[in-house]
Specification:
Blueprint lengths: L3 H8 L9 H4 L17 H16 L51 H12 L5 E3 L2 E20 L4 E8 L5 E5 L5 H4 L4 E6 L13 H12 L2 E2 L1 E6 L3 E4 L7 E2 L4 H5 L2 E7 L1
Antiparallel strand pairs: 1-2, 2-3, 2-5, 2-10, 3-4, 5-7, 6-9, 7-8
């Protein structure tokens, strides 16, 4: 179990007498020193656990879940069972499964250097005062159309077009409201952590190739809606949102932003 999500997935099928004990039982596994507060909700106990994991390690794998969002924070799930679904494999592509970026025109070295510097200088993710500060590669949603719905499930499927990414479909447990449907309100983002970069201090030919390969692969995206005061809120999805970059040019035209998510 290399990352935090692997441990959460391992614990997601456990049963305890008190619902909050599932989160408490993981305090020691993650080497966290948090108070046990019997009587709090299971959502709050899990939220405190996840917030401290991010604060201590910056491990963004805890954001990789599907299901209902927690009232504690929009980026955390209401229940640990949301981690049962297997995440997108981060394994390197085989030679015959080349990254989309390798099939396109060569990327500008200047653009690569700019992107590398932006990513390398990004701070670690932090959770402070119920706000998640999250370095991300952002993609603006250009259009969103309701393709199908089943209010009894409930389930709403949308087709989304986004800058720099191939068109995709997402399934949500709730219908998007008028605020989210406004032009420019939605973002698809790729959470970022500096450990995803090569440890090399300089951008040489090998590092350039690794960076393009990393950024050109499909990734699990978060769907965010913009709020007043330059804040964002995550919109929970019923299935993983697997986003695929178009090509190397679109990858390097993406924006690196530090987002405040509530």
């Amino acid at each position: 179990m290399d990352d935090a999500r692997s441990r959460l997935q391992w614990a997601s099928s456990r049963c305890t007498t008190r619902p909050e004990d599932i989160a408490y039982s993981l305090f020691g596994i993650f080497n966290l020193h948090l108070p046990v507060l019997y009587g709090e909700s299971a959502e709050k106990a899990l939220g405190r656990l996840l917030a401290d994991i991010i604060s201590q390690s910056g491990d963004i794998s805890v954001l990789d879940w599907v299901g209902e969002a927690s009232p504690f924070h929009s980026c955390f799930p209401a229940c640990i069972t949301s981690y049962q679904m297997l995440p997108l494999s981060p394994s390197h592509p085989h030679a015959e499964e080349r990254s989309p970026t390798t099939d396109q025109q060569p990327a500008s070295s200047t653009a690569l250097q700019k992107m590398y510097r932006s990513l390398a200088k990004s701070p670690l993710p932090q959770f402070i005062n119920h706000r998640l500060t999250l370095p991300s590669i952002t993609h603006r949603v250009i259009s969103v159309h309701l393709k199908g719905e089943d209010p009894l499930a409930p389930s709403y499927t949308y087709r989304i077009q986004t800058s720099g990414l191939r068109p995709l479909e997402i399934t949500l447990p709730d219908k998007l409201d008028d605020v989210a449907m406004k032009q420019g309100a939605l973002r698809l983002v790729r959470p970022w952590h500096s450990k995803l970069l090569s440890p090399s201090a300089e951008l040489d030919a090998t590092t350039e190739k690794q960076l393009l390969s990393t950024l050109g692969r499909p990734f699990n995206a978060l769907l965010l809606v913009r709020l007043p005061h330059n804040e964002y809120k995550r919109i929970a999805s019923s299935t993983l949102i697997v986003a695929k970059p178009i090509d190397s040019v679109s990858v390097l035209q993406s924006k690196v932003r530090i987002l405040n998510i509530v």
